[in-house]
Write a structure and sequence with these properties.
The protein is α+β, with helices and mostly antiparallel strands. Helix content is 27%, strand content 28%. It has helices at residues 7-41, 65-72, 85-93, 95-109, 229-232, 300-303, 316-329; strands at 75-81, 123-132, 135-146, 151-158, 167-169, 179-180, 190-193, 204-207, 213-215, 220-225, 234-240, 247-255, 265-266, 271-275, 285-291, 297-298, 306-307. The strands form 3 sheets. Strands 7, 8, 9, 10, 11, 12, 13, 14, 15 and 16 form a 10-stranded antiparallel β-sheet that branches. It is elongated.
Length: 334
């Protein structure tokens, strides 16, 4: 009699295998889930900083341009000229400082251009200046871009060793101002007014201390003395000898010799007076006015021999260093 397989036992065996496999799968899945949760719950790794060498000092940040100017005791003016020069300066710094600052800046500009005739819209000026209580500002550097002349001019205030006054120099080392070979005075601080400065002033003003010797600039004869005292103060007029026909007036003098009377002959280079602050004058200076025989005012810097003085070679390195210092304090033009 053939044997018949026991189907009931086989079904029990298959069901048991399936259950066992399921248990294994669930166990594996649970383990994976537990590992992921454990990783997510763990704190992030702490970054370790590089060890700091306590012996190395961290340099401070460089000072800002404003801090550098404040340390130097200077202020910076940067303007574009689109109308009257004084209007541009006052618009930048205010009237109290701007009005006198315009006059001081003009003393530099007149050696490059006629003011205001040669100033045109779009000219640019950069300057460093120092404010002083109850005194006019001191300009230490000025750069001027002239559209008419298509040129940039620059001058820097520098006191050379042994010189009594600080003067303005160009980067090449020449003085900004022209000098007269036959000058009425030898020692003066600055020419504070010229005929081309827009003031309609008739003479050259030399800023100098009271009592500075005043010399005749040509051979001549005394023609007048102390007239119109309220305006001129102590004054002297000479007529040139030799048929050239020029005349010269010295105004605001401190004193005149009693024997210096009309008709007296003088020689070129002879001391004829001393500078002062008399008459309509606001500061010690010498007014030097050159004229034709017909009383037409003429510019001494165009009618007398002139020259530029240069800084001594031994002082050129110091001037160059000052130019670099001041240039660094002036922002570049836009």
């Amino acid at each position: 009699m053939p044997l018949i397989p026991n189907q009931g036992n086989d079904k029990k065996t298959s069901a048991g295998a399936i259950i066992a496999a399921a248990v294994v799968v669930l166990a594996i899945a649970g383990g994976v889930l537990w590992v992921r949760r454990a990783k997510s719950a763990a704190p992030p790794p702490v970054a370790t900083a590089e060890p700091i060498d306590a012996g190395v000092a961290v340099p401070p940040p460089p000072p800002s341009p404003q801090e550098q100017l404040a340390k130097a005791g200077l202020k910076h003016l940067s303007i574009h000229i689109n109308g009257p020069f004084e209007t541009a300066v006052i618009g930048a710094v205010g009237k109290e400082v701007g009005a006198p600052l315009t006059q001081v800046l003009t003393r530099s500009l007149v050696w490059w251009v006629r003011v205001p005739a040669d100033l045109v819209k779009g000219d640019a000026l950069d300057a460093l200046y120092e404010e002083r209580a109850n005194e006019e500002p001191v300009v230490h550097a000025v750069r001027f871009v002239s559209r008419k002349h298509e040129k940039t001019f620059a001058a820097y205030r520098f006191k050379a060793e042994g010189d009594p006054f600080a003067r303005f120099y160009t980067p090449s080392g020449e003085e900004l101002e022209l000098r007269l070979e036959d000058a009425p005075i030898d020692n003066y601080e600055q020419v504070t007014s010229r005929l081309n400065d827009g003031r309609r002033h008739k003479g050259i003003d030399f800023k100098t201390a009271v009592g500075t010797p005043v010399k005749a600039t040509f051979d001549g004869t005394v023609t007048r003395k102390n007239w119109s005292f309220r305006g001129n103060g102590n004054c002297l007029e000479l007529a040139e000898s030799g048929g050239k026909g020029r005349k010269v007036m010295f105004l605001h003098l401190s004193e005149l010799a009693k024997d210096l009377q009309p008709g007296r002959k003088v020689k070129k280079g002879e001391v004829v007076a001393a500078s002062g602050n008399t008459g309509h004058s606001f500061a010690p200076h010498l007014h030097y006015q050159l004229m034709t025989a017909a009383d037409q005012v003429i510019d001494p810097f165009e009618n007398q021999r002139t020259y530029h003085r240069a800084v001594a070679p031994a002082q050129k390195a110091a001037l160059d260093a000052e130019v670099r210092r001041l240039d660094a304090l002036m922002a570049p033009f836009p």
